[in-house]
Design a protein that fits this description.
single chain; alpha/beta; seven-stranded mixed sheet; five-stranded mixed sheet; 10 helices; 12 strands; about 40% helix
Amino acid sequence: MNRVRKLLLALIATAVTALLDGGAIAASPRAASPDDGARAVEVAAGVYLVQGASGEVDSSNLGRIGNAGFIVGDTGVVAIDTGTSYRHGVALLALIRRLTDKPVRLALITHTRQEFLFGAAAYREQAIPIHMQRKAAALMQARCERCLKTLKQVLGDDAMQGTSMFKPDQEYEQTHVIDRIGRRIQVLYYGHSSGPGDVAVLDVQSGVLFAGGLLDELRIPDVQDSDIDGWTRALQALRQLPIKLVVPGHGPAVSAKVIESVAHYLTRLQARVLELLRSGAALSEVPDAVALPEFALWDQYDTIHRRNASILFVRFERDQMFRRAGSQD
């Protein structure tokens, strides 16, 4: 009996050594260690925020700059946004499972920016369905292969191992209610706003709003995909909601006053860009001439703000040209 036992132990030791020597454990995406920088903070009963870092995607933050979160109900969990990579998705699921053994029923992606998308691979691996607004999903399919290639160049193959493009399991058109976890959750779509398919998510029980691309806290909002008029209407709609706390797309959880901060920035940005256009400024002059000192301490002021100004200048210039052409007709 002792001889059989020793033989079995020797066989097990040999197998483990072979695995370690061959690097099979380290090479498997499933064995990727959770992101040590990720931690879940309970911002209301059963509602958790996993806050991203400030700044742009780089090797120091491994791309984890966008917020994610989850809501725990009586019968399950809804995850909100999935991180920048498979690795981040694994870390987010590990955080959820440390806090509850209730099943994750679905993951909602609020908008089409790389830091919210690509962790979806880890959720799909666990057969957790991914939900996206139809226009957001279409925008992702149109351009995010390129996003993924850029992320791999910036972060490296190791950080992005296991990360891939995907299609959502369910696409939807309009505002709707999710009632699959014993807790009422509203998915709010206001049309093209900060992006063509951007949504916010309201946990009715706590009054916590996951704002996605609609709101950032002390970070310059990105107008690249926006319809400013539609965004303004969406912000007005948010003002009517019984919001007790906002989880923005970037930055810490804050009060609903963040709605006014973002609205004020958009108003001041448009006004300043229009001033430059009417003064005859050239596009090349705009990034340096568009200073708005009251926002100078916001994250990405030196990058996204300058780009925002150029984007709006081109839009306003185009609209002006069309109006002139129409008046001549």
